[in-house]
Amino acid sequence: MRIGLVLTVKNEERLLRSNLMYHKALGIASVFVYFDNSTDGGRNSIENIEDVHCFNSVDADVYRDQLFLEKFTRQASTMHTARQCLNTFDALQRCKKAGIDWLLSMDADELFLPSINGELDLNKFLEKCKGVDVVRLSTMEVLGRQFEYNDVMAEETLFKSQSRFKHWNDRIYFDFYNPYTSETITHTAWLGHTMGKCAINVNSELMPKNVHRFKAIDNRDIKVVSMGYLLHYVLYDFKDFKKKFQNIKHRPDVFLNGKSLPKLPKIWRDMVNDPQFDDLYLKDYYKKNIFIDATKLKQFYSTRFLNILKRKEKAVVKITYVKELLSKF
Length: 329
Hints:
With about 325 residues, the chain is α/β, with parallel strands linked by helices. The chain is about 30% helix and about 20% strand. The protein has 11 helices and 14 strands. β11 (about 205-210) and β12 (about 215) form a beta hairpin. α7 packs across α8.
């Protein structure tokens, strides 16, 4: 079986080539990259990689007549996630024509990891997916331990294992400062999304529900299994922090489903694009609030109750397979 990858990217030159080289080394057959108003050199950085197909984001008019995509075509002009869903649907159609069996849908700061025990064979992974429509990948979030990385995917090996812990004593919280109100916000150490991403059976006639979930076009029940992992390199250093929130400067305060943007991302988006906060202030803010220094790192290995009790669930996982694969390039 053959597996493809679809990415919608905006100004991801720092990560894009390493992302694609890793996935190609893993055995991905074809990659479909949709550039969504990018202004950096990302496209040029990957033009010599075999079986990589580059496009601009799909014009909503292309699928305007597909009524089941109306939620996305209607909001495509204002919501980048709506464009991402249309791009993924477009890639599914391309996969059908190319004879690709499965399609991974993710972002440039995300990598697919079939297993944490070293089993990276895609054929073995897909053999377990017979009769399945969607494979959900569980997210592990990077621990950004450097203020600036050269290539985080080839350098960093520590990841937060999960967003939630069953036992109260294992839960990890940090304080984040809101410069607009001078208040301190207590939030879990997990900063990115928790829903993961998916591998989609190309022949199952599916469509995006959102960027994280898929459903059948005819609304039939689908078979979903949870296997494999998604490594999420979110806010991994200062440059990424600044770029991420510059990218969503004009993003509405709600998601596609109408839910509000969480408080911290909204504050950070406003800060990064607010002229009253210069680079010097933003760098200091990142160091104090987001950067994982030695003191914060210790909290991932300890418990909340004076570290007298041992952790019931590990908070940190060491993943070296990405670094090992990328070292060959």
